Records
---
Amino acid sequence: MDREKITLTGVPETLLATLHARACDSRSSHSLLHDRTALDTVRRIDYDFRRTGMNSVNAAGVALRARCLDDWTAAFLARHPRATVLHLACGLDTRAHRLARFPETRWIDVDLPEVVALRNRLLPVPDGDYRVLATSVTADGWLEELPADRPVVAVFEGLSMYLRPADGERLIRRITSHFPGGQLLFDCFNGLGVRMQRLIPVLRRTGATVYWGIDDPRALERLHPGLTCLDVIRGCDLPEVRHVPPLARFEARLTGLVPGVRDVFRMVRFEFPGGGG
Ligand SMILES: C[S@@+](CC[C@H](N)C(=O)[O-])C[C@H]1O[C@@H](n2cnc3c(N)ncnc32)[C@H](O)[C@@H]1O
């Protein structure tokens, strides 16, 4: 089998870290995601995965956040099966494959053109109403051209921190003003996480930079009338943490003891009105 040689650098290269983490999780007896496609995909890639700095502890952290977003997405779709799922910065993530979707759900994956090209070569196309868009999320126009006939659940994992704060806030404004209600589900760093970024191996090795630290997620409510923060959950407090390997559980417990550090990485869920709530 010819393996796919990876030429991505900078922020796009970081998708190898999260892919590798999901593959590690799927091999573990503690698996939270059971993502066989991630494992198969890693095997088809020619890349030195040691560059990602992933080990069983931080792979469990990635699996935890993915599981949280999977669960929130599934809960939204259970209430709104006809919704549009706007999965931004999809990378080589297989959320559309992992989640049992309704036939009437519309799924749109979005990432940069070089990532979408790689995705199209490596991943099977999921069933149902599915498409993938090759664009920067900060580019003008693409979002406004999407049909706005249904509530949206906009899911973005491993994206917000790489955006400039003004671009992140503009993205939230564009989603909330375009769609007739829905939810925003994403992970974020706080300001301390941005200041400490050079301690994170994948950022050091890929040269990627994070810019947007959100100290008070509830302050984003000002971006759209009725935008409401439903949940802010620290990475170390995610409910599935009880299922991760003992060392990862221990690290989460330690992190939880240190003010500031325990908020470095959080999951947030927002709702905005318009019939999609
Ligand atoms: C850490 S990876 C996460 C990928 C995927 N969500 C996952 O969990 O495996 C970061 C992703 O953000 C994407 N990304 C960064 N900036 C972007 C932008 N402006 N527009 C679209 N995608 C972007 C990168 O190409 C990459 O796929």
---
Amino acid sequence: MREYKQIINLSDALMARINELLSRYPVDKKKSAMLPVLHAVQDAHDNWLSLELMDKVAEILEVKPIEVYEVATFYSMLNTKPVAKYMFEFCRTSCCALRKGEELMEYTCRKLGVKEGETTPDGMFSVVGVECLGACGYGPMLQLGDNYHEHLTKEKIDALIEDCKQGKVSMI
Ligand code: FES
């Protein structure tokens, strides 16, 4: 077990949100709320979960920290390291791959001057490949924040990057 444990306090607004989420589950089944609680905590903390935040979630859900780490590191939509403001998550599974999704991801990497998994020096953009996002009939596609961008082309990617630079892209 780690020897340090920083006490971290969540904002009143976030705690109210967490309590609302917990109210949807039986009192003795707090663990069932883990995914929505992790999303709420991540949303309130620059889209990533530090160890201290995950420990706090474990305390709230009355589970061992390792149980929270296991979930947070399994799902690609949960981030355990700082991430770019705009994270382009390209589906790289078969349907999208057959429709040149990987080529478009490489195109985006070249355009932004990063390799897959890297973040631009200004912290604005990162590009990652993820598994099927359930929009197989609309590929190639990517997820940006809570939104899907489908039937991608180079032109659509150019426009999306430009919109991000101009602050026109909503992440929720
Ligand atoms: S294969 Fe790309 S969304 Fe399913």
